[in-house]
Amino acid sequence: MAVALMACEPILLAHASLAATDIAVTAGLLALGFHVHQGRTTGWLRRVALPAVWFAAAVLAKASGLAFGVLLLFVIECSLLPHGPWHYLCQPRDFVRGLWSSRWDFIQIVCLGLTLVLLYCGSDWQPQPSFVAWAHALPNGPFGRSMTWLAEHLCIFSNGAEGLIRQVKHNIRCHGAFLLGEAQPRAFWSYYSVGLSIKLS
After folding, report:
1. Which run of H or of E encompasses 184?
2. Taking CA atoms, which of 14, 116, 150, 179 is between 20 and 30 Å from 159?
3. Confidence band (pLDDT; 50, 70, 90) for 17?
């Protein structure tokens, strides 16, 4: 349904025209959800490695795949718990216990997926100038010297993590929104619910 809605009306994700990355990230998340759900009782390759590849594909398609992928893993696990939601509202310890069993699989999927993203994006194998400048500005002492050494010798930049961090910073700053003839410099709290009610009709 999500793929169909985005293909027919991409404004649901606040885009004015069709954004190919939205379709790609949704396809990656759909495959991630399918393989996580189907591979729960299989070996490590189908239970962890294959979902990690799809998690990486979603993140490579769009940075928001990182957040949506983690949420999807959480939602799938919640949907497979043996009791209904009212039970867990009354018994939150049972909820935590139910999710606890899958924690290592989820951690492995996310970490392996992010490793694949970094490997796919590659690196220039140079120090990060802003990190070096920050380290040199620290007071002279054990911490300052160790951070300066680390900044000068940590030659893993540029890499895929920079794009993810830049996107997070961009999202924190927010940007303007327009809804029902009204503009605001920051987001409307009701944007998606109003947009969905308009478009679904």
Report:
1. strand 182-184
2. 14
3. very low
